[in-house]
Specification:
Number of domains: 2
Oligomer: single chain
Number of strands: 13
Structural class: alpha/beta
CATH architecture of the largest domain: Alpha-Beta Barrel
Distance between the termini: 26 Å
Bound molecules: magnesium ion
CATH topology of the largest domain: TIM Barrel
Helix content: 40-55%
Order of helices and strands: EHEEHHHHEHEHEHEHEHEHHEHEEE
Shape: globular
Largest sheet: 8 strands, mixed
CATH superfamily of the largest domain: Enolase-like C-terminal domain
Mean pLDDT: 96
């Protein structure tokens, strides 16, 4: 089939609150083919990515044939190379991610399959969710057995560490001994704070610290990683393509990789990152893995059996942008027997 239209839209995000998300949050990409099939994708990069898709990528993609997964990869490579002067990461790859996911959605529909089936079919009937939230009680009551909270610092101070310890102690009390507890630093910590936190939290068996330093500081992360043991050092939501992950792999800077399928280059590139991860024996736990786009990848048996559920996304996003999206139930997620990714956008928000 031939691509006859490509269009990106910045939807109305009712709950995009803080600064960068106001204008640079998720985009919707629609691809139409000459056989009437429409593919939907979800990318990042906001208003800038919309321009990249509608002006540059559209020009290249129009008229291209997509009759196999190899055709999707070939088009990806072409778009990557064409956008190299201003791309290779950031909003250009976030834009490419949205277009790539729309191509997979479209091709799976043409084959009368789900994306998961295209990847070999269901290998996990259900995927264990982990809740990202600041409210352990609510998440436990929803059935989750894995919980992550965010703890930001500006400068090292003891009161802040005391607050972290109090929060973790409370979460451990709420969830009991067997739950996984994680802490996300959102790039705000420094090495000494991470070491102090690991030491002070030893009794609470923290599974991982996430996004501890700036993602550029591969050497710092590589030095920190063995010192945090048994806490794992994880990250990667701000890294793009297998090229960036190649640097991470060679620096041995992270215990678990967290690419975001809607940012890192789409499913095409996530599969390549996954291949690299297998080579280095690094587990993958996609950022926002509980959203439908990565859920097909996880359901097909790729990555860890652990999908991130931003509780703000699942609880507060009304009206919901993606219709028929699976929601966590009893702390687990499950995809239905669908065509493509099985979702379509709420047109009123486009
Ligand atoms: Mg994070």
């Amino acid at each position: 089939m031939k691509i006859i239209d490509v269009k990106a839209v910045y939807p109305n995000h009712y709950h995009a609150t803080n600064s960068w998300r106001t204008h640079f949050w998720q985009i919707v990409v629609r691809i139409e083919t000459d056989c009437g099939i429409v593919g939907w994708g979800y990318g990042g990069g906001g208003v800038a990515a919309v321009e990249i898709v509608n002006r540059h990528f559209r020009e290249i993609a129009l008229g291209k044939r997509v009759d196999s997964v190899q055709d999707i990869s070939a088009l990806w490579d072409f778009l990557y190379q064409a956008s190299t002067p201003y791309g290779r990461g950031g909003v250009a790859i976030m834009a490419l991610s949205g277009l790539d996911l729309a191509l997979w959605d479209m091709f799976a529909k043409a084959e009368s399959m789900s994306v998961c089936e295209l990847l070999g079919g269901i290998a996990r009937d259900r995927v264990r969710g982990y809740a990202t939230s600041q409210d352990p009680l609510l998440c436990r009551d929803d059935g989750f057995t894995a919980f992550k909270s965010t703890h930001l610092i500006r400068e090292k101070d003891d009161a802040n560490l005391a607050q972290l310890i109090a929060n973790v102690r409370f979460a451990r009390d709420v969830f009991g001994d067997n739950a996984l507890l994680m802490v996300d630093a959102y790039m705000s910590w420094h090495m000494q704070y991470a070491l102090d936190a690991a030491k002070e939290l030893l009794d609470f068996s923290i599974y991982w610290f996430e996004d501890v330093l700036l993602p550029d500081d591969l050497r710092g992360l590589a030095r920190l990683k063995p010192q945090l043991f048994p806490v794992k050092l994880v990250g990667g939501e701000h890294d793009f393509t297998r090229h960036a992950y190649g640097h991470i792999a060679r620096a041995d800077s992270l215990d678990i990789w967290q690419p975001d399928i809607t940012w890192c280059g789409g499913l095409t590139e996530l599969l390549r990152i996954s291949e690299l991860a297998d080579k280095y024996e690094i587990p993958i736990c996609p950022h926002r893995g509980g959203e439908v786009w990565a859920l097909h990848f996880l359901s097909a048996g790729y990555g860890m059996d652990l999908a991130e559920c931003h509780m703000g996304y699942f609880k507060e996003e009304t009206p919901c942008l993606w219709q028929h999206q699976p929601k966590p139930e009893g702390g687990y997620l499950q995809i239905e027997d669908v065509l493509g990714f099985g979702v379509s956008p709420n047109e009123a928000l486009l």
